[in-house]
Amino acid sequence: MKLKKKRIEEMIGLLDQITKKAVLYETEFAEKLTNIHPAYKKSALNFIHYLALRENDIRDLQEKLGELGISRLARAESNVLASILAVKNLLRKLNKLKKQDKNKGKLTRKKAKKQIRTNTNSLLGKKLKGSKTRIMVTLPKEAVDEKHLIYNLVGAGMSAARINCAHDNVDVWYKLIEKIHNVKKKTGKTCKICMDLGGPKLRTGKMIAGPKVLHLQPERDIKGTVTNPCEVLFAPKGTLPSVEYPQIIPVDTDFLNKLEENDKIQFTDTRDKKRTFKIGKKENDGVVGKLFDSAYIETGTELNLFKLDVLCVTAKVEDLIPVEQYIVLKAGDILYLLAEEVEGEPAKYDENGNLLNSAFVSCTLPEIFKDVKEGELIVFDDGKIEGKIKEVSTEKLTVEIFYAKEIGEKLRADKGINLPESNLSISGLTEKDKEDLKFITKNADVVNFSFVNSAKDVNDLYFELKKLEKEDLGVILKIETQKGFKNLPEILLTAMQHYPVGVMIARGDLAIEMGWKNLARAQEELLSLCEAVHIPVVWATQVLETHAKKGRPSRSEITDAALAERAECVMLNKGPFIVKTVELLSEILKDMEDYQDKKSTLLPMLDMFNPFNK
Length: 614
Hints:
Oligomer: single chain
Mean pLDDT: 91
Strand order of the largest sheet: 1-2-3-25-26-27-28-29
Number of helices: 18
Strand content: 15-25%
Low-confidence stretches: none
Largest sheet: 8 strands, parallel, barrel
Radius of gyration: 29 Å
């Protein structure tokens, strides 16, 4: 018993030390706390207390508290001092001590939960009927022309629409926003408009143009029998591919106007194979053609239109979009990353297979060449290809590939490049971002700020917003680099000088920057830090991505989506099955509310057979 009493005294002593450290931190951070927005005053103070709590490893203390059946402070993020005080008072009771500290003036868990609800509502709007977790969806350009897509997304549970300024243009953005406002008027539902600044994204440059050929393939079963014909759209030259019709065959308008349902178009493909299209329904942009066998069509292919088996007219395929060229890379290959803006080319070999020239490609931010060093890691296309920098000059980086698929990995234009070990000096705000902000401040509710690395980046953004007289615009800070992760406390305390603010866990780039094995740890830390400061979190990247693209989720994606309920908002990317994906995510998030409250496990009644109740 005496041993137990001594252990309890030690635990009380440790908790006293943490409390003293928390009070000391208030003094040390006093200057930073002075400029905090009034809505965040108590939150910022609690955040300082949480940093004091996490300054030391308290796992041993937690273990001892757990043995006594007392709170292990695992959920103390949102109300640190009140949680510590409650535990200390329980320990004193166990030691039969009369002294009890009062909780007067300290932030309670109930008040903390109310605060994060208020902050979430201010940034992302009030929740829709169903789950308390919001759903943000990246809108595709096709939503401009697809009449009911945005309406159906809102109906399925989308409460925030994301428009990425790295793609399309002002005309497309305005049309998307106009459609969102029309849907809001029709439905009476909330749908915040969130626009991403592109940021200083480092990507591969253009590749040399390939042949102007279209490869058409119907769907077949395991025996090779056609289960679905390949559908293409015969359309005027200049018609762009869409989600519904990704393959376009450009033809002149006179030929197009003659096409009617059940007509046939016969042609000879590039392999001298005789093939036939059956003409289907008319669309706004053109006419659908169905092909029941594989074919290769090129610019200039002759098309013979038959009506009731009688040749009616002949035309030629007009200028096709060139096939996207790529570089195939294997472990051991050398790749030159060039500063000069030239079209990339694959490696060249002689007739005996001897290497003549290594592959090369340009990059979009050659100014990073001055920041990188020999021996540092370089990663391409979301981790599909990895290499080491062997040589550095102002004109090029020489990269030796050490990781790729055994058969080789394709590197295409406009693919991401990450330098997780390099100390890059590029800022989080580009000149294009500053121009895009002019549009965003007039038309959006929230700006998503990409590649936030430091407090300076945050100040740069608000400097621009101040010039545009829009400092009260909602801001979501995208944490996607090692620098951003390590500097998060300073980033948050700087951002909280304004209201409202959120954080996006951009798991794609963050996984590459931190290393795949460290992503889970980084997620936990980001969720905890944001909980401590009562700032809403957006859980992003590859959530139910297979479902959005192919209509069926993987098992691991379901588990990932369930964990996402711990955040205030989940972001989905575009895909042909995005409406169904929003519906599925809404169901998952609503179901998980019975089983978890943020990181706390809840225990509803078991919904299964109980052998003891016969």
